[in-house]
Amino acid sequence: MHLQVFNSNPHLTLAYIQSMETKIRFLPTMALLIALLSCITLTSYKVEAQSHFPSPRTLAQYYKPRTCDIFPRMCLTEGSLGPDCCRKRCVDLKEDSFNCGRCGKVCSYTEVCCDGQCVNVLFDKNNCGGCGSTCAEGSYCTYGMCSYA
């Protein structure tokens, strides 16, 4: 009879008691984990806050990027975008549509920079469809194709 009273109350079943024991056993572990994560978060916040305002003594230690206006030979290295320097960037004045032929000369929306000149590759018979693509003698360039119907 005593066993029936114990089983009739769902909060006092053996499974419930075992689950509560498991939760109580992991409680110190969870508290330790939360404390550890809090310490890491607070420490990283302090390091980040210190790095925003360096002392004048450490300003000289910061990396200063090398730009082609100070080091012009860097535009001649392998992997450079071009041999010329415009506005602290390496460019190719023969192909760059924002620096075509000279620094700051921008080609219009319909033009492409070919050999340092802005040309419309849709209608230029010397650069039909792309730079250096010429049409045959007597033909014309229409919409980037030579002698289009």
UniProtKB/TrEMBL annotation:
The record's listing under Pfam families reads: Stig1
Keyword list (alphabetical) reads:
Signal
- Highest taxon, organism lineage: Eukaryota
The family this protein is said to belong to: Belongs to the STIG1 family.
Name of the protein this chain belongs to: Stigma-specific Stig1 family protein
User: What species does this protein belong to?
Assistant: Acorus gramineus
